[in-house]
């Protein structure tokens, strides 16, 4: 049973991690776009 709980925790952690990476990438792209417009 503990193994199942650990697996479930890992499954829920993956989308959160991907969401964080995508959000970070969107912020970086936005910042790059703003700096490109300013140049």
Produce the secondary structure layout.
Layout: H1 2-38
Protein architecture, described:
- The chain is mainly alpha-helical and about 40 residues long.
- About 95% of the residues lie in helices and about 0% in strands.
- The chain is built from 1 helix and no strands.
- It has one helix at about 1-39.
- The chain is rod-shaped, with a radius of gyration of 17 Å.
- About 0% of the residues are buried.
Key features?
1 helix, 0% strand, mainly alpha, 39 residues
Q: Give Rg in angstroms.
A: 17 Å
Whole-Å distance between the termini? 57 Å
Q: How many strand segments?
A: 0
Average of per-residue pLDDT values: 91
Structural class: mainly alpha
Fraction in helix: over 70%
Topology order in helix (H) and strand (E) letters: H
Strand content: under 5%
What is the 3D form? rod-shaped
The largest sheet is:
none
- Provide the low-confidence segments as ranges: none
Tally of alpha and pi helices: 1
Oligomer: single chain
Short description:
The chain is an all-alpha fold and 39 residues long.
């Amino acid at each position: 049973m503990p193994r199942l709980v650990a697996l479930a925790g890992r499954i829920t952690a993956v989308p959160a991690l991907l969401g964080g990476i995508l959000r970070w990438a969107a912020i970086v792209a936005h910042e790059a776009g703003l700096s490109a417009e300013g140049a």
